[in-house]
Amino acid sequence: MIKIEGVTKKFGELVAVDNLTLSVSEGEIFGFLGPNGAGKTTTIKMIVGLLRPNSGNILIGGIDIRKEPEKAKSIIGYIPDNPYIYDRLTGREFLYLTAGLHNLAGDNVRRKIDQLFELFNIGEWGDGYAGGYSHGMRQKIVMASALLHNPKVLVIDEPMVGLDPQSQRLVKDIFLLLARRGVSILMSTHTLAVAEEICTRIGIIHKGRLLVVGTNEELTESARSKSMTLEDYFLHLTGERHAAFLPE
Questions:
Q1: Is residue 52 within 8 Å of 64, Cβ to Cβ?
Q2: pLDDT per residue over 72-84, tens digit each?
Q3: In the chain, N or C: fewer CB atoms in 10 Å?
Q4: How many other C-beta atoms are found inside a 10 Å radius of the C-beta of residue 21?
Q5: Does pTM surpass 0.85?
Q6: Conformation bin of residue 19: beta by default, left when phi > 0, alpha when psi is -120 to 50
Q7: Closest CA to 25 of 45, 58, 5, 3
Q8: Residues 65, 1: contact at Cβ < 8 Å?
């Protein structure tokens, strides 16, 4: 459902994403891992049409996001890393606004919003103004809005930031349920444990380049062949240092 072919994105002389090629199949949860500044968010913004690549192609369900942006975006649900909601709208009003952007209206929308509020345990907070929301509640509202139009593709940037452990468990269960229903999910994270728990495959990106792609089992086997844990393997690939290298 997501096909990225030879995509490069530059900001001046800085190459943020360098000749990236990857795909995400129907019903797959693809974990996109990398340290801060690796190119994850830039890639996601290109997938959802917020940035244009300098070269390469991005297809969503066979639709070229550059040539037919509205058609491609109609099947994408996007959850950004910073959940923005108008402070003077209630959560419910925000979802109605989102529904209007997708040309959805009527009793079906009302029922769907009620179902999503129940699914995310939003409760009476949904009728309070967003200005009084915690980061976690904002995240839930944005997630609900991304699912309002039943997208075939879900693109998520750091979904667990600001969520308490109970909400994290809920969100992971929802992603697994959506994948079983055939939704293709690309999820960026720098938290290896989350990717290990729910992702079908994992890709590790560093300095704009995709270093490795594989299942948990394949990456774990690669780590073992080097006498490393998966975490140490990730740190090794990305050149990150940990406490063992702390200078005295």
A1: no
A2: 999 999 999 888 8
A3: C
A4: 13
A5: yes
A6: left
A7: 3
A8: no
